[in-house]
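Running this now, will post back.
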Amino acid sequence: MFDLTGRTALVTGGGQGVGLGIGRVLLDAGATVLVNDLVPERARDAAAALGSGAHALPFDVADPDAVDAAIGGTDGLDILVNNAGIPPSMRPVQFRDLPREEWAPYLDVNVYGVLNCVKATIDRMCDQGWGRVITVSSGSGTHGGDIGVSLYAAGKGAGISFMRHLALECARFGVTANTIALGMMQRPERAGGEDTRTVTKDAARRVPVGRLGTGEDVGHACVYLASDEASWLTGQTIGLNGGSLTS
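Update: finished.
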């Protein structure tokens, strides 16, 4: 059950955090994993850490030429996990205080990044009669909030809408398209910042199951969505949030 042996998966933004956890679980399920990251060294280090069956594939998802060149150089993909979503310039700021010149990175990675990667993979999936497209979104794309992530949320919401339409366009070809909307996740520690353990403990109190999500939690959901057993599940947005129904 949920055996991905013989399948090849691309995980964008897979060099760290949630993406690294997704790659690890896909690999454990038998898939060959292509680890994408904007930073080449990070992709290579992550692939080396994952071990045999993982390979680095660095490129910028927002650059259509780079996407086409990188993916076109592979032997083909069965599973696409659109996980990249946080631009390097991301910062919490209310929309009224966010200058226009800071809008583009949020939409480039979360809208055009998803479109570019899907465009580079979807024809082959449809032609071979099997494929899985999984977009990692956020509760900020399904619910409103006042924490200063409105442009990030706009990109995440657009990705959700696109996947619903893609699912219906490609359903008859054996290709499914689904979205996972994440709740509060563990984040890597940052030197010099607020005590991460305190922040994590306080955040976990607000999650009904009592802890934050991990990349491995997301990976297990991806394994199911990528499996043959999930062939009748498409066009859906699944909230993976520990029971936090408003985030």
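The helical segments are 17-28, 40-50, 64-72, 104-128, 150-170, 196-204, 215-226. More later if anyone needs it.
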